[in-house]
Amino acid sequence: MKARTRGSQQKKGGVPLLRCLVLLLAAALPMTGCGEKTAPNPAQVKRPIISGVSVAKVAPAVVDEFYDAVGTVRAAKTSVVAGRMMGVVTSLAVKEGDAVEKGQLLLTIDDRDVVQKVRAAEAGHQEAVKALESGRQNRELVDITYRRYKKMYEEKAISRQEMDQFETQKMVAGLEYERGQEMVKRAAAGLAEANIYLGFTRVTSPVRGVITEKKIEVGNMAVPGMPLLVVESAAGFHAEVTVDESFSGSLKIGTPVSVSIDALNRQMAGKVKEILPSVDPLSRSLTAKVSVGGPGLRTGLYARVRIPKGKKELLLVPRSAIIEKGQLIGVYTVDDQGIVTYRLVRTGREYDGRLEILSGLKTNERIIVDGLEKAMDGGIMEKGK
Questions:
Q1: What is the pLDDT of residue 45?
Q2: Structure pTM?
Q3: CA-based end-to-end distance of the chain
């Protein structure tokens, strides 16, 4: 009886143990199956097919290297118009921004005192001319009389003393005529001087150009040497640019450069026409003047000058291949399997519609250069492309 009791107890204890083992195996099997289902299979990835685009390899190119300088457009010739006599400004015929011709009247100064001096000089000149004419007539009369008396003296009709008297009269008449000539010259010089001063009351433009600054108004007192107006010549302009002193050795007069005027949205050709010899000790730079020309130029415009330095090799891609997404700049690359990827790049200067790639691309990598609106990140090129 005791033996059966122990056996029945062993059977009762073995059943729970077996059940635990079965439950553990059942729990492990589903876990193994889930692990197999989550493993990715690249061959099963669905990628959109891209067609209608052009692909090109990135290759190095040799380009001209430039030094970019900035500066300001200035007139080739600037004239400061100053007064040459004291007086009140009675009229002002121009304003800032007006175009003027050479010799055009700009302003007038009170000329009443000068007009009186001119009139007095004219009267003095007329009196001198009349006196000279009277002296000329008197000299001619004395010459005629002298010749007649000389003939009489040769015929022994008059004495030597009488002949000496007529010779003295002839000499005096000649001296008076010469004195009259000098008086006319002095009167003419006085009249010319008075007219010059009268001309000083009419201030005219020394060059053809534009009025850029007005320093006086009607009613103000003009003083000799005081600037009245500033006229910039329209004959030509130049751009004054600042160049680093390290570049001074390769910069030569006559060097052709490219000049960009942002305000006019124009790019033009120019030449270095002058290099100032002094170097700024603070900025370690010097000033060069580049000749420019064309309509719309005026003093003060911002100018960017590109000066050639030599040749260098760069990675260039067409400007149209660059895709900007917000603050990101990149290109669509194509790998050996034809998969398209948007890759970020860092760009540099632009050369004739092509951008320098500083980082992000390597030589012989393929990029999409046309049909970018059909490209997408993660797509795959149509077979045969």
A1: 65
A2: 0.53
A3: 91
